[in-house]
Specification:
The chain has helices at residues 2-5, 30-44, 86-110, 124-127, 148-153, 159-172, 183-191, 243-254, 269-281, 296-300, 322-328, 342-350, 362-378, and strands at residues 16-23, 48-55, 60-66, 69-77, 113-117, 137-141, 177-180, 200-202, 228-235, 260-267, 285-288, 305-309, 333-336, 354-357. By secondary structure, the protein is of the alpha/beta class. Strands 3-4-2-1-5-6-7-8 form an eight-stranded mixed beta sheet, sandwiched between helices. The protein has a six-stranded parallel beta sheet with strand order 11-10-9-12-13-14, with helices on both faces.
């Protein structure tokens, strides 16, 4: 796994590392999962790591020795991100970021290196202005781009967000090092944010689970039995394509063979929209909650294929982390999104049966469903 093979820090000269993330396991959050894995690996290499993140249950402090180092985990209790207005989300973000920085402050003062991510967003507006207080290098693992994701989600240009983007890029140019998840993100960061390439490293996530021959697959839901099961797992949010999928799925069931059926094991605004619209159209699907990490391998080995979707406006700003585990399962994959995304790059290199469908082309998606169903019958 590429994430675990690379480190910007030397344990001999940069032993004390602080990592700030959002939701840590067992809470659901891809960034938190990967940052916990990063922290464990750094500890194995001999670092003293402090991982600061969020928990929905209760705050806690834990310390464990791992390999040649030690990992201290500091969890702050927090309410889930409000999904109402932009104002309430922004207020939650500001308050949460202040709490995270305050909790991590003593460790950051003594740290040789500080890693922060794009989730929660806008931590950069606290950490970089205070950079004179940190003696260690500041590394930004830019998971999701903010405010670019907010801009991409808007129907009309926003002067406030445009100003915020200019300020964010001002602070970005003062970060010591960046880690990006894909070549598409590297292009965005270099060409649009003005970051020199020498300060950007491509460090992919990899799969959070290992697949074994003796993994027991999750049972197929009864209403999907006998069909070609297409699984969408994880988060389905504002960055994920809906329109092309809904129309292509409708055409497949109303004008095509209808052999492919969706298993929606997901949370997020997109998941709610997809479930509501499929129900209104009377189209068959099964909805379930995301499974805990220890059951993820079994879930991903259960379907006939996986579905990944991404809006064109979010290419290079968002990298669906689920792609690594989906490809690791060895199952076929259908991607609704641009060929400019690293999802397409990774999928073509993986060797799994793969269909890429451009956003806005539901007929091509219907054809992909038929080809997938034909392959499933032959298998």
């Amino acid at each position: 796994m590429e994430l675990l093979e690379q480190s910007p820090f030397d344990p001999a000269s940069e032993r004390r590392i602080v990592i700030i993330a959002d939701w840590l396991p067992p809470d659901f959050g891809a960034v938190g999962q990967y940052m916990q894995m990063r922290a464990e690996h750094l500890a194995e290499r001999g670092h003293a790591v402090t991982l600061v993140g969020l928990a929905t249950r209760q705050r806690s402090t834990g310390r464990r020795e791992i390999g040649e180092g030690v990992l201290t985990e500091l969890r702050l209790q927090a309410k889930p991100v409000p999904r109402g207005s932009l104002v309430t989300r922004l207020a939650w973000t500001i308050w949460t970021n202040l709490r995270l920085v305050w909790k991590a402050f003593p460790a950051m003062r003594a740290a040789d290196g500080i890693v922060f991510t794009g989730s929660p967003p806008f931590l950069i507006h606290l950490l970089v202005p205070l950079k004179f207080l940190w003696r260690g290098r500041l590394v930004y693992r830019i998971t999701d781009f903010y405010p670019e994701c907010m801009i991409a989600a808007q129907d009309k240009p926003s002067r406030l967000l445009t100003t915020l983007l200019a300020l964010t890029n001002f602070w970005r140019r003062r970060v010591d090092r960046f880690e990006v998840l894909g070549e598409d993100q590297m292009r965005r960061l270099h060409e649009e944010a003005g970051i020199v390439r020498d300060r950007i490293a491509l460090v992919r996530d990899g799969s959070p689970v290992a697949f074994r021959d003796d993994d027991v697959a999750e049972p197929i839901p009864a209403e999907l039995a006998g069909s070609c099961v297409l699984l969408y797992s994880g988060n389905y949010g504002i960055a994920h394509e809906v329109e092309t999928f809904i129309e292509g799925y409708r055409l497949h069931h109303q004008d095509g063979s209808g052999r492919v059926r969706l298993w929606l094991s997901a949370t997020g605004a997109g998941a709610e929209e997809v479930a509501g619209r499929l129900t209104a159209l009377g189209l068959p699907f099964h909805r379930s909650k995301p499974v805990p990490l220890e059951r993820l391998a079994g879930l991903l080995k259960a379907p006939d294929a996986h579905l990944v979707v991404l809006k064109d406006s979010f290419v290079g700003f968002v990298m669906p982390s689920k792609i690594y585990a989906c490809l690791g399962s060895g199952k076929p994959l259908v991607f609704v999104g641009s060929a400019d995304s690293d999802v397409d790059l990774l999928s073509r290199k993986s060797g799994v049966p793969y269909w890429q469908v451009s956003c806005g082309d539901p007929q091509a998606l219907t054809a992909a469903f038929e080809a997938l169903a034909d392959r499933s019958v032959r298998s």
